[in-house]
Amino acid sequence: MVQSPLHITLATPDATARYAVTLGAALRPADIVLLDGPVGAGKTHFARCLIQSLLITPEDVPSPTFTLVQTYDTTAGPVWHSDLYRISSTSDIEELGLLEAFEDAITLVEWPDRLGSLAPTRALTLTLAQGDRDDERIMTADWQTARWDRPMQDWANL
Known about the structure:
Strand order of the largest sheet: 1-7-6-2-5-4-3
Distance between the termini: 14 Å
Strand content: 25-35%
Oligomer: single chain
Largest sheet: 7 strands, mixed
Shape: globular
Helix content: 25-40%
Order of helices and strands: EHEHEEHHEEEH
Radius of gyration: 15 Å
Low-confidence stretches: none
Mean pLDDT: 91
């Protein structure tokens, strides 16, 4: 059994995409994935690959930096992709409807530190960081509930 935290070296953007697609296949409504890391770490690339793997009809998956939230109908249910970089208070998060999405949608959240005390403890937290080479990323997966044990075991076997 793999234990939290799990550290993975992603040598290329294609490797990042492979992990995103594998996780996407395991997601179901009410799952929350928090994507943490600095600008340029690969959070949006990861989210885009995951969402595109689940879309019923292929479409562009833009960064929600300016719209704050993008929603998608997918084979696994509704997906909410949010970027909280420009959020300054938790009341803004409540106005977005994000707390309701946590209950019945698959929710991907970039810049989860903006959630503050609203951050769900049942979430899977993925922290991405620059590796030693330009395209390399180091991903750390951290979780507190058994819900994520199986998907992380699948990752450990990739």
